[in-house]
Amino acid sequence: MKGKPLVSIISAGLSKFGKHEGVYTRELFSYAAKEAFDRCPTLNPKQDVKAMFIGHMGEAYEHQGHTGSAAADWSGLLGIPATRTEAACASSGAALRSGIYAVLSGLADIVIVGGVEKMTHRSTAEVTEYLAMASDYPFEQFHGITFPGLFALMATAHMNAYGTTQEQMAKVAVKNHHHACLNPKAHLQKEVTVETVLASKVVAWPLKMYDCSLITDGASCIILAKPELAKKYTDQPVHIIGSGQASDTIGLYQRKSLTSLQSTKLAAKAAYDMAAVNPQDIQVAEVHDCFTYAELMAYEDLGFCPVGKSGQLIDNQETCLGGRLPVNTSGGLKAKGHPVGATGTAQAYEIYLQLTGQADKRQVKDAQTGLTHNVGGSGATATAHIYRSDN
Question: Catalytic: 89?
């Protein structure tokens, strides 16, 4: 199977990310599903789609679990097996893995995978509490540490070990805000400067408000098909040629390193090996920038640069549009938004657009190979997927 398509993406959909008043999670998902169906007029969803896997992190937001059947109903697919996956912020990255398994097993030729979260109707304190459920309860949550605090610990460890600076983290925010300004579906379409980021309110030093991703509502989905069937539905299939998922201790305090995520390294290695590519082959990537430091850490864990050199990558603008390896062309979690259950397949949606030449003002020229990287919690879960187009 090395280097060969596992599954093919024949369509994709994404709701507008931002604040959606007066709608529920199920409605948000139906917006993404409708776009995916409209993009693929040769598909008959009720006849052709055989299963659904949907990432959804938290029933606390709406006091609503059992998301699979609700999403299937509101997207017009009532009757198919519909399963919710939960892996914290990597919930739809895990849904994507489940969809790949379903097609490879032969049980389904076409499946829909996606994710959704409705967060903005809750207060910041409530959202912080619900997100903290993805950390270790007796040793982290109980003592009051939140995810900004956990990632601040990692950031300061990297600063001490490698000389990484607050300015370099701020440059990640500047880049991703600029990319989001080119994305009509991004939550925060607003340019910022390094000075603006550095002057913003401290959340957990060295992380400031503009170092943190957004509380957002949104949904995303992609439609996967058996590779042999893809050309029946589209002239521009995007093949997934590598897939990896790994886990680590749920508590940060148990880790051997605070400057990298072992789960990311393991997931990426599995995906690279399966795809028969190396990091230098990647032309565009969407990585999990829940905080600006997390993007710098991802550069190293994914092999885009040597350990300790991620700051140089952003200093040299190599990950900006027009650079050697554009990263988070969508605006990333940082500015596109982070409706946690939707993030993994939202990343896949962006790569689908890039590899089919549909990314408009943020298009990476001649992109044929892409990568997505989705993290749950402080790195207790990570997924990595590699994509290739034939265009």
Answer: yes
Catalytic residue among 20, 56, 179, 338: 338
Residue with tokens 């027009």: 322
- Asked if residues 267 and 245 have their Cβ atoms less than 8 Å apart, the reply is yes
The active-site residue out of 20, 40, 56, 89 is: 89
In angstroms, the CA 354 to CA 361 distance is 11
Q: What pLDDT does residue 29 have?
A: 98
pLDDT of residue 390: 87
Query: Is pLDDT above 80 for 91?
Result: yes
Give the CATH number, domain containing residue 13.
Answer: 3.40.47.10
Structural domains in the chain (count): 1
User: pTM here?
Assistant: 0.98
Dihedral (CA of 84, 85, 91, 92) sign: negative
Contacts of 181 (CB under 8 A, 6+ apart): 189, 190, 191, 331
Domain limits at 368? Answer: 7-122+214-389
The two structure tokens encoding residue 179: 């990319």
179 is catalytic: no
The 10s digit of each residue's pLDDT in 53-63 is 999 999 999 99
Quick one: pLDDT band at residue 246, thresholds 50, 70, 90?
very high
Q: Is 6 helix (H, G, I), strand (E, B) or coil?
A: coil
Q: Tokens 């600076």 correspond to what residue?
A: 165
Query: CA-to-CA distance for 219 and 28, rounded, in angstroms?
Result: 6
- Give the Å distances, CA to CA, from 167 to 170, 197, 207, 293: 5, 9, 11, 11
The string of pLDDT tens digits covering residues 9-18 is: 999 999 999 9
Q: Is residue 371 part of a domain?
A: yes
CA distance 17 to 374: 18
d(CA 272, CA 146) in angstroms, rounded, equals: 32
| 50: three-class secondary structure by DSSP | coil
Asked if residue 25 is part of any domain, the answer here is yes
In a domain, 181, yes or no: no
Measure the CA–CA gap between 195 and 357, rounded to whole angstroms: 34
Q: Is residue 11 within 8 Å of 32, Cβ to Cβ?
A: no
* CA max distance for the chain: 57
Integer Cα distance of 363 and 12 in angstroms = 17
Q: Is residue 194 part of a domain?
A: no
What is the share, in percent, of the chain residues with pLDDT greater than 70?
A: 100
